[in-house]
Structures are given as C-alpha cells and as structure tokens.
Write a structure and sequence with these properties.
Elements lengths: L11 H4 L15 E2 L2 H13 L2 H8 L35 E6 L2 E5 L11 H5 L7 E4 L11 E4 L15 E3 L1 E3 L3 E3 L5 H9 L6 H11 L1 E2 L4 E2 L6 H19 L14 E4 L8 E4 L4 E4 L2 E4 L3 H4 L2 E2 L2 E2 H10 L17 H25 L9 H6 L20 E2 L5 E2 L2
Antiparallel strand pairs: 1-3, 2-3, 4-5, 4-6, 7-8, 9-10, 11-14, 12-13, 13-14, 15-16, 17-18
Helix pairs in contact: 6-7, 7-10
C-alpha cells in the first residue's frame, strides 16, 4: 500500500489493544493430532507411581506433580495434586497447535505451565483469536492468522507473537477495538458504525508486518473498504473453516490416487505432476501454491506431515500415538490443501488493495480515539460465577 507511509498508519496494538502472550505448555505430550492418544497417555500416567509418574509427567519449575493450581475456566479438570490423581482424563478440546493445524489438548491446568486463563474465559463459539506470526525475510505468508480455538506456540519452528481476541467478553460482547474506532471509521466512510467482524476482516488483509510492529492502513473510500472487507471475510472464513467446507472447482479438487501407507516416513512434492508423494501413496492434484504456502518462513504442509510422522523418544508419553495412519488425518489433509490453495488465490487481490487518503494515527488522536484508555489493554472482568481454585477452593473474579 504505497500511498501511506509506515509512520502514518495506526498500529495493530492500538486498534486491538488487549493482547495476551500465547499459552505455554512446558511439555509436548498433552497435545496430539488425535484425542484417543491423549486419553491413553493420561491412563498411562496415572497407572505409573512415584518416580515413574514423575518422569512421565516431565516436571518443570512451573509444574510438578504436587503443584496446586486453579481449574481452567470453563473446564472440568481437577484441582487436586496430580501426584494422587485417579480420575478419568478430562475431555480433550481442539486447539491451534501450529499454523493451520488444529490438534487436541488435555484441558487440565496442572499440565500447562502458563495457560493464560484470561483467554480461556472468553473462548466460545463467537470468539476469534488473532495471532501475530513471525516475520520471515522474503516470505509471502500472512502476518496474522485467525482461529476459532485457542492458539499454542508450535513445538518447533517459528515462535508466534501476541494473541488478540476479537471480543473482551463471552458471547461476542465488547469488541476488543479502540473505543470510538468503529464510529469514527464509519463516519469517515459515510456508513455509520462498522461491524466488528468487518474491522477484523479489513485488518487481516491490510496488516503490514515490520520487524517490531504490525500496522494497519485504514481507508476513507467506501469502495476500497467494501472490497477489502469482502476479501477479508473470505480470508477469515478459510482460516476459521467453520460452516460449509471449502471446495476447489471440479477437476482441481485433491484426491487420494494411491492409498497412503499405514506409517508414512517420507513426503515429497512432484511439482511437474502436482502430486504429493507420501511413500507409495499419492495425492493429486496439489497446486504448487498450496505446497509452497508458508507461515513464518516454514512450509505449512511439510510441517503438518512432520508433526504426525516424527519419531518420539521411546518410553515417553509422546510415544503413545496411532500405530497406523488414521482416515481422519487424510480427510484433514485434503481440506488443508484446499484451504491453502484458495488462500493463495486471494494473494493477487490482496496485493492490489490500495488506500488513498488514509486515516492516519494523527487523525485518530485528533478524534480522541487514540490514545486508548489503559484499562482496554487488560482483560475485562467477565465472571459472574465461581471458579474452582487449588484443592477445590473457589475464587470469584
């Protein structure tokens, strides 16, 4: 967007002022691409006793078998010390374990070094978590991802940045936007207050990453706004993957041409044939843009396979995993290829998005939108009920 300078454009940190560092697990085994493995890992942990249980747990300075912690908001995990736990595994929940890779997590606070309870309190079907991505030189990947589930830092690969929920309260209440922003943008566009999801849609396609900041040019032209929001809504739908499943046109849809092996080892891409070779298995057509799609300088498809085929240390809980390749993973792979191909198709339109006569940081300051009140940079008080604290005590926030 050459018509606005870096110094003029508002910062994402001001437009969406409340942000939280991503949760930190401290151990890899409470997450997995399948829920059944997590339940088997939990059972194995609880069958072990004494030093064996401690070794399997993988303690850190933040979490040991004797840590006393509060219950995760909205979850049923226990609060007694894990050293004497005997109950069933808490029902696993979906999380974003890496870019475009939803996996499962045991939602038990005793297993997580830094769970960020404030994020769990606002996680529901209306929420969207915006995740800042590592800026990689010459990478064409997105600067921001949007997820309907809680994001976690990848076990390996680039670190992720701050997490910015779209809403400060459950139920889609109180947008995490600078107070007065929606009204001011609507006034400049001549449309009236703009929808919070439309603001997010614009941010997803207009955000420009720098080494230490992300800025977001804002338009005053209704046509540019409408075009960007349409593009952003499409991007948001593909990233969230909710509702109808995305599909490529007939003839371009990826299919399994030869069955994937029960335990894949090597993944190779044949660019000439647009084919993904998984040992003797074959998936095609796989557009080159889908294979080359990167986030933080890392190929999404390549890393997706690596997380399902890498060897775990024998005798650890992480080594408990499916012995054969589940059919559900193949379905997820085909959908992932589709999503990446469709997102890649949007790039030329996104690159062509321009902002003439932009809203600048100075404009927002003059209008009183900036600086934002300091209270908007922290979590809202969202609780009207008790949460279970350590050892069954109750807390009220």
């Amino acid at each position: 967007m050459p018509s606005v300078t870096l110094d003029d454009a508002p910062l994402l940190a001001d437009l969406m002022p409340w942000s939280v560092a991503p949760p930190r697990l401290g151990r890899a085994w409470p997450t997995a691409p399948d829920a059944a493995s997590l339940k088997a890992r939990w059972d194995t942990l609880l069958k072990a006793e004494g030093p064996d249980r401690e070794a399997l747990f993988a303690p850190t300075r933040s979490r040991t078998l004797t840590s006393a912690v509060a219950q995760l908001p909205g979850r049923s995990g226990g609060t007694g010390r894990l050293a004497r736990e005997t109950g069933p595994c808490p029902e696993p929940v979906r999380v974003l374990a890496a870019p475009f890779d939803e996996q499962w997590l045991i939602p038990d606070h005793r297993l997580i070094d830094a769970a960020r309870p404030e994020l769990w309190r606002v996680a529901d079907e209306r929420q969207v978590f915006v995740v800042e991505q590592t800026v990689a030189p010459e990478s064409s990947g997105p600067a921001l991802l949007a997820s309907p589930v809680l994001p976690l830092p990848p076990a390996h690969g680039p670190r992720i940045g701050r997490v910015r929920p779209l809403y400060r309260r459950p139920g889609g209440v109180e947008p995490n936007l600078a107070p007065g922003l929606r009204e001011y943008v609507g006034e400049r566009l001549g449309t009236g207050p703009v929808d919070p999801v439309d603001v997010l849609a614009w941010i997803l396609v207009a955000a420009r990453p720098g080494p230490h900041r992300v800025d977001v040019p804002l338009p005053t032209d209704p046509e540019a706004w409408s075009h960007g929001v349409e593009l952003g809504r499409r991007t948001l739908w593909l990233m969230r993957r909710d509702g109808d499943r995305p599909k490529l046109p007939g003839g371009r849809r990826p299919y399994v041409r030869a069955p994937l092996p029960s335990r894949p080892v090597e993944v190779v891409y044949d660019r000439d044939e647009e084919t993904l070779l998984v040992d003797a298995g074959r998936v095609s057509p796989v557009p080159a843009d889908a294979w080359d799609f990167q986030v933080g300088g890392v190929r999404v498809l390549e890393e997706w396979f690596a997380r399902r085929t890498e060897q775990a240390e024998p005798g650890t809980l992480a080594a408990i995993r499916p012995t054969t390749w589940p059919q559900t993973w193949t379905s997820e792979l085909l959908e992932l290829i589709t999503v990446l191909a469709l997102l890649a198709e949007l790039r030329p339109r996104q690159a062509g998005l321009t902002v003439d006569r932009p809203i600048t940081t100075a404009d927002l300051r003059e209008a009183g939108v900036l600086p934002v009140p300091e209270s908007t940079r922290g979590p809202a008080s969202v609780l009207d009920h008790h949460e279970e604290g350590p050892e069954g005590q109750f807390t009220l926030l």
